[in-house]
Amino acid sequence: MNTKILDGPALWPAQAHVPSVLGRQLVIERGEGSYIYTAAGQKLFDGTAGLWHANIGHSHPDLAAAARAQMLKLETYHIFARFVNDQALALADRLAAMSPIADPKLILNSGGSDAIDVACKLARRHWQRAGRTTKSVILSREFAYHGLHAYGTSIAGLEFNREGYGTESLVPETRRVPVDDVDALKAVIAEIGPENIAGIVTEPIQGTGGVNPPPPGYLQTVQQLCRDNDILFMLDEVITGFGRTGSMFAAERYGLQPDLITFAKGVTSGYAPLGGVIVAPHVWQPFYVDDDATPVFRHGATYAGHATSCAVAMANLDILERHGLVSRTAELETLLRAQLDQLSAKHSSVVDVRVGGFLGGVSLSDDVRAESVADKLIDIGFISRPLRGNTLQISPPFITTDGELVRFVDAISQVLSEEE
Ligand code: PLP
Q1: Domain boundaries, the chain
Q2: Which CDD domains would you find in this protein's record (predicted)?
Q3: What distance in angstroms lies between residue 306's CA and the mean position of ligand 1's atoms?
Q4: Which residues of 50-68 are buried (b: 16+ CB within 10 A; e: fewer)?
Q5: What global pTM score does this model have?
Q6: Does domain 18-56+324-419 have CATH number 3.90.1150.10?
Q7: Predicted pLDDT at 202
């Protein structure tokens, strides 16, 4: 066994296999619109919008101005006990008004992993409050990604994200169900017993698992199964929320009425850390009963509802609305589908293309590695990302022009021609 210890910068690339990335990291120094620039001066088209977050593009001056103005007024004040800040109040009202869940309450925190922890804990507290104390298991789906806090690690459907914590992982009462298989889900519910299940978490379109849009009717059937069995239906809209699928939320696209929705990334387009949970009335009301015995849902953090993040989110929502960017993603979806169909027709190495909103996945045959294609794309000025299933991620910012999208797919075609 090689025992040589590698040296490198103080910053640990903790999501990566260190020997594979050390010395190869691209230092990103600047961004503008749909492009980012490396410290070495290379310009790259951001074909993934970073980690599916930079929906309005990079370095927008309005968001910088909103952050500056808020910091000069008040950086933040925590939401603890009797304290709250005006920005968190205003953002929660705005999100409630645009939410697919009627009359919701909003819990604001600092990101997607955080939102998942809140949603799973709240699901359990909901059933305890209802006197159904055995309902504690959280179901999730094979290939799911829900972040890497304790609950996200435990419910991860990508096995490598649970590595080192055992199959039962950090939180004992979780269980993965096979993807897109209603009968298998019914069998798991019957095996565990609905009296022991608190909720199921699902991405409307699986992202990191390979961009997997749901089969027609699948999510509606899962929602109905949840209703029939008193299981909370929790939709993880961390990627899909705020316009990625041509509606503000994918719940609208698929006609769903979840009990909880988690969101993050697109709420600020990544300009400041923020996430949260939209909570349906039957879940929040027991915590609002005017009685000494009313329980507390104790989940708080210093940066929950951070005032500067909330001010940035408001400016981001203004831009989405002012420029009609959500309807623009619907147009981009149509173009993306046509482009990827052509790509698939042209290249034998493309075994499948999947599109759901302005979100695409290109799966390649075993002889062409998505990692190697992504590396070569960087060499010619484009960013994609290898996902599970030897798949390339396509999810540029919403401000992408038709010409830029066509050039991006052409670049993929060029690299595939070289690799085939
Ligand atoms: N849920 C989904 C569906 C995600 O894609 C992600 C991140 O990619 C998360 C949760 C975790 O979000 P964050 O990275 O902001 O903690």
Answers
A1: 18-56+324-419, 64-322
A2: OAT_like
A3: 19
A4: bbbbbbbbbebeebeebbe
A5: 0.97
A6: yes
A7: 98
